[in-house]
């Protein structure tokens, strides 16, 4: 499997990059790539002159990945501008490479909430992409959970492992669906069923249409 890590921080000693790496270790075995978010600021004029190579490379990496883990810092109660800029560039390619991709999100921050507000804003931004964003477990990591640039806190490591196990399942089923291959055991299978209609409250005997409630188990 191919896992792409996206860290919303460009700092060499970034806690979020360390968190993405810890997530990759929990996700293993997989080939892991860390995305380069050193992109120019989104500019429609620049785009009109041709998509920058780094943006093309980012989108190719997203398209190629079976699963994606995004670690965002919290800057003034929101996701980082670096990450938002990358998402904006990515949205300019059609079809958007993030669409339908299994995505897990994490955050590490100096504040005691561990970047909770950054994650909320990231989840909101990802709505525009129709990605398969895992809802839980929500993993907010305080800076004190790291030692010498590595995530060492036991509770945080356990939660990261739980989140990565889910991402792996989701990534496998998406990869199998793409390849038309049968699903492996233990993979989450989401079946699309039509929603049963609620029975109509008023009886209209003259109407040829009747509301029928479909039994759940069928
Ligand atoms: C501009 C700026 C704004 C910040 N705002 C917040 C904040 O709102 N909440 C918070 O918990 N930490 C905040 N921090 C601290 C970051 O959480 C901390 O620097 C973190 O380590 C950044 O992530 P990184 O290590 O991946 O670069 C802010 C830092 C910067 C530089």
What do these coordinates show?
The relative contact order is 0.15. Helices cover 35% and strands 16% of the residues. It has 218 residues and is of the alpha/beta class. It has one domain: Rossmann fold. The structure holds flavin mononucleotide. Flavin mononucleotide binds next to helix 1 and strand 4.
Structure keywords:
218 residues, alpha/beta, Rossmann fold, six-stranded parallel sheet, two-stranded antiparallel sheet, 6 helices, globular, binds flavin mononucleotide
In a few lines, what is going on in this structure?
The protein is 35% helix and 16% strand. It is of the alpha/beta class and 218 residues long. Flavin mononucleotide binds at residues 9, 11, 14-16, 73-77, 108-111, 115, 143.
Topology of this protein?
Elements: E1 2-7, H1 15-27, E2 31-34, H2 44-48, H3 53-64, E3 67-72, H4 81-90, E4 102-109, H5 116-126, E5 132-133, E6 139-142, E7 146-147, E8 150-151, H6 154-179
Parallel strand pairs: 1-2, 1-3, 3-4, 4-5, 4-6
Antiparallel strand pairs: 7-8
| Class from helix and strand fractions | alpha/beta
The value of Rg in angstroms is 21 Å
- Measured between the Cα atoms of the first and last residue, the distance is 34 Å
The CATH class turns out to be Alpha Beta
Overall outline: globular
Number of beta strands: 8
Q: Please, what is the CATH homologous superfamily?
A: Flavodoxin domain
Most strands sheet: 6 strands, parallel
Run of helices and strands: EHEHHEHEHEEEEH
CATH topology: Rossmann fold
Strand content: 15-25%
Please give the domain count. 1
């Amino acid at each position: 499997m191919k896992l792409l890590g996206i860290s919303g921080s460009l700092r060499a000693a970034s806690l979020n990059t360390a968190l993405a790496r810890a997530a990759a270790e929990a996700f293993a075995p997989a080939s892991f790539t860390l995305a380069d978010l050193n992109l120019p600021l989104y500019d429609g004029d620049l785009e009109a002159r041709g998509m920058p190579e780094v943006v093309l490379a980012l989108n190719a990496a997203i398209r190629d990945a079976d699963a994606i883990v995004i670690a965002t810092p919290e800057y003034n109660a929101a996701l980082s501008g670096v990450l938002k800029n990358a998402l904006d560039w990515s949205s300019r390619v059609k079809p958007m490479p993030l669409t339908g991709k299994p995505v897990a999100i994490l955050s590490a921050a100096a504040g005691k909430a561990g970047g909770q507000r950054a994650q909320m804003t990231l989840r909101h931004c990802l709505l525009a992409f129709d990605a398969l964003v895992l809802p839980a477990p929500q993993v907010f990591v305080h800076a004190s959970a790291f030692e010498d640039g590595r995530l060492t806190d036991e509770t945080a490591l356990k939660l990261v492992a739980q989140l990565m196990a889910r991402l792996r399942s989701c990534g496998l089923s998406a990869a199998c669906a793409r390849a038309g291959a049968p699903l492996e055991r233990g993979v989450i299978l989401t079946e699309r069923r039509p929603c049963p209609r609620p029975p109509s409250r008023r009886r209209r005997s003259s109407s040829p249409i009747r509301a029928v409630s479909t039994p759940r188990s069928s």
